[in-house]
Design brief:
This protein has six helices and four strands. By secondary structure, the chain is of the alpha+beta class. It has one domain. The chain is globular and about 50 Å long. It comes from Aspergillus lucknowensis.
């Protein structure tokens, strides 16, 4: 994240302000106890083991009493692990091995529940998984497109980080192969998105 990613001025209400904050760093004094709701989304490929504890402690400091944390995320095991495509399975294995090698948190939902339940200032901790298949086939194309994009992009970044040769060709092989598998076999991406909640006392 950087300010370069912010929308152009004039495209949002005047009382709306963008800023950058690292969830693993101490909370600036001016942000403490200011918010009724803090929403966190998709840190599945960003946090190391133990980082969820730090994140939860910092998120609590942002909240007013009675305020809520709402965290939406994926579990690395179900991100792409149930998709019956050999190319998607290759991408998923690549991501999992990368996360394991770097000591990343592969189970953010369960790590959040454990950290939030143990925190003395939090209550009403809950987790709910929403499966992509639940919404019916009218959402199939949108889910397939979004999840394949995330897997293909992550795989390409991992290949590049490993210093692999022919990154572009390998990334294209995986992406195009997965697209063919999905179209040929009528695949509906089977994954879970977890909604995690906790309220400050």
């Amino acid at each position: 994240m950087s300010p370069a990613s912010f929308p152009a001025p004039g495209t949002h209400p005047e009382n709306f302000r963008y800023s950058v904050y690292n969830i693993l760093e101490p909370v600036p004094e001016e942000l403490r106890g200011r918010y009724d709701l803090v929403h966190v989304r998709l840190l599945v490929a960003a946090l190391g083991k133990g980082d969820v504890d730090t994140a939860v402690r910092n998120l609590v400091l942002l909240l007013r009493p009675g305020g809520w944390i709402q965290w939406e995320d994926l579990d690395s095991y179900t991100w792409a692990g149930r998709v019956p495509s050999s190319h998607v399975k290759e991408m998923h294995a690549l991501m999992r091995s990368h996360m394991e090698a770097r000591g990343m948190e592969e189970h953010i939902p369960s790590a959040f529940v454990a950290a939030a339940t143990a925190h003395q200032d939090l209550q009403n901790v809950s987790a709910r998984a929403f499966n992509t298949l639940e919404g019916g086939t009218q959402h199939r194309d949108a889910f397939n497109k979004a999840f394949l994009w995330s897997c293909a992009r992550s795989s390409k970044m991992i290949l590049r980080a490993r210093g692999e040769e022919n990154v572009e060709a390998e990334a294209t092989r995986l992406d195009e192969g997965a697209r063919r598998d999905i179209e040929r076999d009528g695949i509906f991406w089977d994954s879970d998105e977890h909604v995690l909640l906790a309220q400050r006392r």
